[in-house]
Amino acid sequence: GQNIDQPTEMTATEGAIVQINCTYQTSGFNGLFWYQQHAGEAPTFLSYNVLDGLEEKGRFSSFLSRSKGYSYLLLKELQMKDSASYLCAVQSGGYQKVTFGTGTKLQVIP
Amino acid sequence: SQTIHQWPATLVQPVGSPLSLECTVEGTSNPNLYWYRQAAGRGLQLLFYSVGIGQISSEVPQNLSASRPQDRQFILSSKKLLLSDSGFYLCAWSVLGGARISGNTIYFGEGSWLTVV
Description:
- Chain A is built from no helices and eleven strands.
- Chain A has 110 residues and is mainly beta.
- In chain A, strands 2, 4, 5, 9, 10 and 11 form a six-stranded mixed β-sheet that branches. Chain A has a five-stranded antiparallel β-sheet with strand order 1-3-8-7-6, with no helix packed on it.
- Chain B has strands at 3-7, 10-13, 19-26, 32-38, 44-52, 55-58, 64-70, 73-78, 87-94, 107-108, 112-116.
- The termini of chain B are far apart.
- Chain A binds chain B through residues 30-31, 33, 41-45, 48, 50-51, 87, 89, 91, 95-103, and chain B through 32, 34, 36, 42-44, 46, 49, 51, 90, 94, 96, 99-100, 102-111.
């Protein structure tokens, strides 16, 4: 089976930096994804990590440590529109299966 | 470019009634197809996935079923809905890319809100 853990909620200030952590336990790890989901909408893809290290994409960066079963999503220069849930998802087994964590609800305040 | 559509967007159904949600993908061939459910305030639960026509893997035993009659069509059904079936249902697709480039990135449809009353 798989186990994915993320904090339930976080609050951060506009313009600041926030780090959302994700830990996982799985067999046959093949990659980790981060998705953003605004309330009432479908998730949208943010990033993918399969090797250890940091992947940077504009204001968003994602880090992976396979040996520790750990990832984080880093959001810089926070904007009010970044208020959303952020979902960590793990790809395992025969590549087809992607399992999602319960998500971290981020609230950005002025 | 690839697009995914699912319908209906919203429906209210009485307990015990049947259900049919439909999803189609355009612009790609032989995609992996998925049905997820998201209950209020909870995470995404994988219900079914399919790697080809007629090939369905079920992740959660329940009163739902899925079918893939055509390469780019995925249908979620139930013969008799339960109150606990209420939620946000998401169809999704992926195509396995280079493992180091994109992995099996999943792209979601707009979602269907189901309320069982």
